[in-house]
Specification:
This protein has 93 residues and is of the alpha+beta class. The protein is 18% helix and 39% strand. A hairpin with a 7-residue loop joins strand 4 (62-66) and strand 5 (74-79).
Length: 93
C-alpha cells in the first residue's frame, strides 16, 4: 500500500497573517528620533568620531533610526534616503 503525502494548504487568512507578522517585526527594528542637545549634528560615514562627515542636520530634525544597524554609542540613521551614523547623546528616541 503506497502512502501519499498530503500537501499543506495555505489559506488566504494565513498568508495575510504572515504578512502582518513580518511587518510588525520590521517596524519594531526602526524608531523615529529627534536631534536635541546640539544646534547641528554630524552624520558620519561609519560609527567613529574621526569618520568622514557625510552631512549635518539641525536641532529638532526627525530622523529614522535603524536599531539593528546601531552600535553602543551611535545610532544608524536614515534621512532623505541617505544613511549614516550619529552619536546617541544627541538624539532623543
Amino acid at each position: 500500500m503506497a502512502t501519499t503525502k498530503k500537501k499543506a494548504v495555505t489559506t488566504p487568512v494565513a498568508v495575510e497573517q504572515e504578512k502582518i507578522d513580518t511587518t510588525v517585526r520590521d517596524i519594531s527594528k526602526e524608531k523615529i528620533g529627534i536631534v536635541s542637545g546640539c544646534s547641528i549634528l554630524n552624520v558620519r560615514k561609519i560609527p567613529n568620531p574621526l569618520s568622514e562627515v557625510l552631512f549635518t542636520i539641525a536641532r529638532r530634525t526627525h530622523v529614522k533610526i535603524d536599531l539593528e544597524g546601531s552600535t553602543e554609542r551611535y545610532y544608524r540613521v536614515v534621512l532623505q534616503g541617505v544613511e549614516g551614523f550619529c552619536q546617541k547623546d544627541f538624539i532623543e528616541v
